[in-house]
Every structure is written in structure tokens, then in C-alpha cells.
């Protein structure tokens, strides 16, 4: 019988969740939904020194915004509660004791300075491997090198100690990875990682393995940066006698800088001017505010679609995938090993596509939001019409306002490039006549604006092409924008004639 699919997203609240974390969560979620499985959220907060206030809430809010639903775990509850590792401290002791009993773990009493001295010594001896492990453990202060009574005495006298994994020597450790195939590591290259710290708190390695086992996790889907930890995890499953319950591993490819040169970092994103966090985050030390994808105007469905493609591809030409389609099409087999270049232009492209696909009536709300901040009133119908005109030109919801400002506020300055080149006597004459003709009309439509302009230019034997730019600058102040005739229909006759008159008075003729 195949195991029910139970996957977990297991972030550590040591800072704001990075966009890469959302991708990891997404891939877990897609698999869970496709297989009718369970998506679990576990908070791995065993490293209390690195705890950052607000980071856990940020994780929950970010997942919710991205549309990644948690079935079981922190914030939701479930049969394996609590889901915050710091609250599960009591559970881990039993397993570390079991490892001590089976001689797969040992007590170590070394101070930081003693460990440092060991490293220096091995380095001086020209030894490449300066880890606390197979080559050094017997020269250190631990329950393997000391005899039973010495160990007992140290423990009874209250000397602080940690518990380390005793990594077996001279063996191949095999990690079967669904993305990378068989990864084999020589056990002597691994170190005797600390499993339990001196305050009785488990480390990531112990808590992670114990919880994956207890929570009956079927697939561990996580970033490539955890691949080096996987051999130790495999050993721990064996040491604890859980080798038959071991989850399947899938280590996701790294997210690379846009040029493909190294891992994407916050610094790169800052430098290139794009967000790295899903939501805006204020650093509680520096008070520095980093704008998130949400606040920058990315739609969650566009971001999800973009992230899905950072490592996975459907094997077809299709690029636009709603969450449901991703759920249907996703497969771990179609995730590549190679790092995925983070191309923000592609994210913007997805955003554009999702905006374009929306009905004008829905887009109107973006514009109405901005307008209400500006204390400008506008009907839903007019806002929808403006959005319809602009929707192929915008990347972000806020662009509707930025690009439609001229509809609501008459220009007070005029694009220099256009006025210096195109605002000549000929243009001024045509615009004067055009304005007079427009005044005669009872109502203005885009077609009428166009045919009237053509009539005037024909009469004055000027090409229409020469007038369009001066007309645009007079009406909008800018050199480019949405379809001019359609914009005129929206602006209306009164406003247009007023604006042309003002421009004729204000702009000096070249
Ligand atoms: N707590 C680890 C992290 O912060 C999770 C690694 C894993 O999924 O095993 O990413």
C-alpha cells in the first residue's frame, strides 16, 4: 500500500520568509493537492538565538496571500499538535536517549575554545578535515574518549554538555532524491553534528527527523541548501530504526541571480530594484523597510505562476497556469536539477497577463482605490472604461492611476521634447480650427474626434500625423499614452476644448 501523501513546509522564523520559501511551500502544496494529501506547516524554531519577532506571523500571512492553504499545523492545529518545535521540546529527549543507548550518539563536554583548538591543531597538521567527527572525536572530551566514571563525574558536577551523533565510519551513505537521483556520500566526510544542545533543546537535525517521522511525512521537499544535511538525516532514520518509514526526498534547485551567477540574495534584489519578500517587511533591528511583492503590485496568482516555473516546467508551451491547473499538471519528475535564474521581467510579464485577463469591471476597483486616496470621485462605469483602455499598457494595478491621471487632472506642464519639436505655427493653426469644430458637435465619440480631425487637416492640407503629438501634449501634457481618440471620448468635449485653449495660450510656438 502506498503511503498517504503528507508533506510539510518547515520554515524557521529567523527572519522574513524569502520568495524562495514561497516556492518551496508551493511545490509541497501542489503535490499535496494533486495527490489528495495533507499540507502541513511546522515552525522550526529550535534555534532560539536566531528567533525574530513577527517572523512566524509573516510566514502565515505570506502563505495565505499566495493562496497556499495549510491543512494541518501551526495556526490550524491537527493530530500532531503542537506544530512549533520549541513547544515539542519534551518529545525529543526520548529519541536522543534511544540514540545514546544504541551507541549512535554520545555526550560531549568540549568548550568552544577546545573545539577551536582542535581545528587549529588539525589544520597545522595539514589535515583537510577539521570537523568534530571520526578523525577527531577520540581526542576530544566526550563519553567515547572518557571512561564511564569520568563521564559520570562530569555530568554530576553540572558540566555543560551537548549530545552529538556518532556518525558511522567507512561507509557509503545513500540519499535517494526524486530530483537528483542517488546521491552517495562517504560517511567519514560527515561530522558528528550536535543533536541536542546544552539547554536541552534539540538542533534542527534531530527535531526535523523526529518530527518528520512522528508526523508521518511522506515527502520532504525542500531547498537544495539542505542536501548536505540529508545524509545525516538518512543515518538518523537508520539509527532510530525508522528506515522503512523514511520519507522520500526532493531537493529543489537553487534560485539564482538573474545572470545565473550564484544564489539570489536580498542584496542582489535590492540592487536590481525588485522585492525579495512576499509582503513588506520591516527589519526590527535596522527599521529598514523592504517592499514586498504584494505591495509592489504583483497579483498573488501571477507570482505563484511565475514561481511554479522556477525549477519546474510542464513540458508544453503553455505558460499561464491558474492554481488548479498547476495542481493538475505538477510533478516532481519535471523539476530540474539546475539552478533557476530569477528573471524579474518574467514575473512582470505574468503580472501583465493576469491583469489583462481580468474584466474591466474588476480592474476598475484598482483605479477607484487609487482615486479615493487622491480624493477624486469617479463612477464605476467610467473607471471600467478607463481601465479597459489602459489594460494592455499596465504592469501593476497602481499603473492604472499613474497612466490615467490626465483624465482627472489637466496638465500644468507639457513634454519639452514634443513642444520643442512639434509645437509650430502649423500645429497651432490646426489645433485652433479643430477646437472650433469640436465645439460645434453635440456629442463627442472617438470616431467623431477622428473624422473631425481628418476633416480639418484635409482642409488645411496638413498631414494628420503631424498633429497627433501636439494634440496629445495639449490634452495630456505627455508624449505617449493610450489611444488618443478613445481618450478624447472619455475626456469629453468641454474638457478637451478647455485644454486645447489653455495649451494654445501657454505653449510658446517654435
Ligand atoms: N527549517 C528548515 C528551513 O528553515 C527546513 C528545512 C527542511 O525542510 O527540512 O528551511
Amino acid at each position: 500500500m502506498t503511503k498517504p501523501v503528507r508533506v510539510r513546509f518547515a520554515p524557521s522564523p529567523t527572519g522574513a520568509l524569502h520568495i524562495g520559501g514561497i516556492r518551496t511551500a508551493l511545490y509541497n502544496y501542489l503535490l499535496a493537492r494533486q495527490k489528495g494529501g495533507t499540507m502541513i506547516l511546522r515552525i522550526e524554531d529550535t534555534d532560539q538565538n536566531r528567533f525574530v519577532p513577527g517572523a512566524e506571523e509573516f510566514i502565515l500571512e505570506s502563505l495565505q496571500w499566495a493562496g497556499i492553504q495549510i491543512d494541518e499545523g501551526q495556526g490550524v492545529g491537527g493530530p500532531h499538535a503542537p506544530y512549533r518545535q520549541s513547544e515539542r521540546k519534551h518529545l525529543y529527549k526520548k529519541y536522543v536517549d534511544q540514540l545514546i543507548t544504541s551507541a549512535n550518539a554520545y555526550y560531549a563536554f568540549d568548550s568552544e575554545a577546545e573545539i577551536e583548538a582542535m581545528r587549529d591543531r588539525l589544520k597545522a597538521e595539514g589535515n583537510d578535515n577539521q570537523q568534530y567527527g571520526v578523525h577527531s572525536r577520540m581526542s576530544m572530551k566526550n563519553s567515547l574518549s572518557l571512561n564511564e566514571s569520568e563521564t559520570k563525574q562530569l555530568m554530576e558536577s553540572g558540566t555543560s554538555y551537548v549530545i552529538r551523533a556518532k556518525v558511522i565510519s567507512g561507509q557509503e551513505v545513500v540519499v535517494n532524491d526524486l530530483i537528483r537521483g542517488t546521491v552517495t556520500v562517504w560517511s567519514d566526510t560527515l561530522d558528528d553534528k550536535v543533536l541536542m544542545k546544552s539547554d536541552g533543546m534539540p538542533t534542527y537535525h534531530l527535531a526535523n527527523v523526529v518530527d518528520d517521522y512522528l508526523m508521518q511525512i511522506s515527502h520532504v521537499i525542500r531547498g537544495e541548501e539542505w542536501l548536505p544535511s540529508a545524509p545525516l538525516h538518512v543515518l538518523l532514520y537508520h539509527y532510530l530504526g525508522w528506515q522503512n518509514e523514511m520519507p522520500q526526498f526532493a531537493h529543489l534547485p537553487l534560485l539564482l541571480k538573474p545572470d545565473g551567477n550564484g544564489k539570489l540574495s536580498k542584496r542582489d534584489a535590492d540592487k536590481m530594484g525588485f522585492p525579495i519578500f512576499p509582503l513588506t517587511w520591516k527589519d526590527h533591528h535596522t527599521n529598514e523597510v523592504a517592499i514586498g511583492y504584494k505591495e509592489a503590485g504583483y497579483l498573488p496568482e501571477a507570482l505563484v505562476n511565475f514561481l511554479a516555473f522556477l525549477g519546474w516546467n510542464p513540458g508544453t508551451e503553455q505558460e499561464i497556469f491558474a492554481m488548479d491547473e498547476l495542481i493538475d499538471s505538477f510533478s516532481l519528475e519535471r523539476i530540474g536539477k539546475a539552478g533557476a535564474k530569477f528573471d524579474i521581467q518574467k514575473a512582470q510579464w505574468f503580472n501583465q497577463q493576469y491583469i489583462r485577463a481580468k474584466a474591466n469591471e474588476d480592474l476598475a476597483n484598482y483605479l477607484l482605490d487609487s482615486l479615493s486616496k487622491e480624493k477624486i470621485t469617479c463612477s464605476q462605469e467610467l473607471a471600467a472604461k478607463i481601465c479597459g483602455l489602459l489594460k494592455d499598457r499596465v504592469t501593476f494595478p497602481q499603473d492604472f492611476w499613474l497612466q490615467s491621471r490626465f483624465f482627472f487632472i489637466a496638465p500644468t506642464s507639457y513634454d519639452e521634447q514634443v513642444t520643442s519639436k512639434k509645437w509650430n505655427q502649423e500645429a497651432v493653426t490646426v489645433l485652433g480650427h479643430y477646437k472650433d469644430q469640436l465645439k460645434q458637435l453635440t456629442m463627442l465619440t472617438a470616431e467623431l474626434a477622428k473624422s473631425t480631425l481628418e476633416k480639418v487637416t484635409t482642409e488645411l492640407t496638413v498631414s494628420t500625423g503631424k498633429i497627433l503629438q501636439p494634440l496629445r501634449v495639449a490634452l495630456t501634457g505627455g508624449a505617449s499614452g493610450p489611444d488618443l481618440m478613445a481618450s478624447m471620448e472619455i475626456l469629453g468635449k468641454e474638457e478637451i476644448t478647455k485644454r486645447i485653449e489653455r495649451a494654445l495660450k501657454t505653449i510658446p510656438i517654435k
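Residues 10-12, 44, 204, 208, 220, 222, 226 surround glutamic acid (CB under 6 Å). The chain has a mean pLDDT of 97.
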